[in-house]
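Worked example 2:
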Amino acid sequence: MTHYRTLAIDGLKIFHREAGDPALPSLPLLHGAPASSFMYQERLGRLAHRFHVIAPSA
């Protein structure tokens, strides 16, 4: 299951998609401009059984 979250860091809100158990090793999925975390939507589900996957958005 993919969760859609917003994290505030120093007053800046950062949207990200997150999947998998936080107790598993974390795997950040980064992208370049002008892409967004949407491009990883399908991969999040495939990797979530082995990793805690985090994909920040622009």
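The chain has a mean pLDDT of 84. DSSP finds one helix and four strands in the chain.
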